[in-house]
Fold each of these.
Amino acid sequence: MKRTILFLCTGNYYRSRFAEELFNHLALERGLNWRATSRALAIEKGKWNIGPISPHARIALQQRSIPLAEPLRDPIGCCEGDLVSAARIIAMKEAEHRPYIIERHPAWADRVEYWHVHDLDRASADAALGDIEAKVRELVESIGADSTCDS
């Protein structure tokens, strides 16, 4: 059974969805026994999100020749089961997401790894998605290195 990484952001529309798709693409290429999923910590905050995934994320994935399986799912809110089933949990930005985790899933606040990737209000899509790409690639390399040690 594949181990799961859970990527979290506010609306499960932009940053976490890009991280999920990129991770799954790279993990498949490397033959890793891991998969990613993603969820929203405050899905109600994404009420202005149009469609299942941000156009910024879609375009960035297309630019990297990463296909999206159609039909795309809509954003999904995080529930306790998502946290329990994940081997690793990564929230996109600590200052933004730790308060939601403390409010909605307090027992998990210190079990989450926090990155520092700004949303569109503080960074361009190219900068934010570039940061996510670098972090996801580093994560895949780390998991790949750990997997070879287990062999």
Note: The beta strands are 3-9, 34-40, 88-91, 113-114.
Amino acid sequence: MTLAAAKPYISSMQFGYAILYVEQVEATLSFYEKAFGITGKMVMPGEYGELDTGSTKLAFAARALVTTLFATPLQDGGVDKPAAPMEIALVTPDVEKAFDKAVSAGAVAVAKPAQKPWGQLIAYVRDNNGFLVELCTPMA
């Protein structure tokens, strides 16, 4: 059964934000401001911070804080470790400029801007924590 064929379901659930666990929240917020031009929306020093990304929020929580909330082990992060099995996608009309700015600010280049068969221009970098960040044009 396809999703379209499924009985309509109305949910009050909405995607509000993604929280990534990092060693240093303030350093991560500073990196995202320098590399991508995204500014902080809310900061709880040493514990939590949100970036103003539009209708959803990109948030970072300190690993030390998170490990007090639940017992599930966390994968180690860092640019010297394999990337986590996820990515952050940032949409921009100028992928080349965004890629160059990010790399100049310390992001690790993964894939230079390339036109994809479905019409988007896409590049990849890794942030200061090792997370993959996709820089892409809007979908047509």
Note: The helical segments are 25-36, 63-66, 95-104.
Amino acid sequence: MLDFAWSEFLIVALVALVFLGPKELILIFKNLGKWAGKLKAMQRAFMDQVNQASLEIDDDNKKS
């Protein structure tokens, strides 16, 4: 996983604000938020599938 401190994130945000401007920065953060939501939903779906598969394996092992 990426290891960012809050201070580093703040520096990147300030540099982006200077170079992109406030209007474009709002749109970029909005799009990043949408992508983060999609990634989180994909992660949740993947974990649900892994958990379901492990439950099925446990059930099969208990029957044997």
Note: Residues 14 and 20 are 10 Å apart (CA to CA).
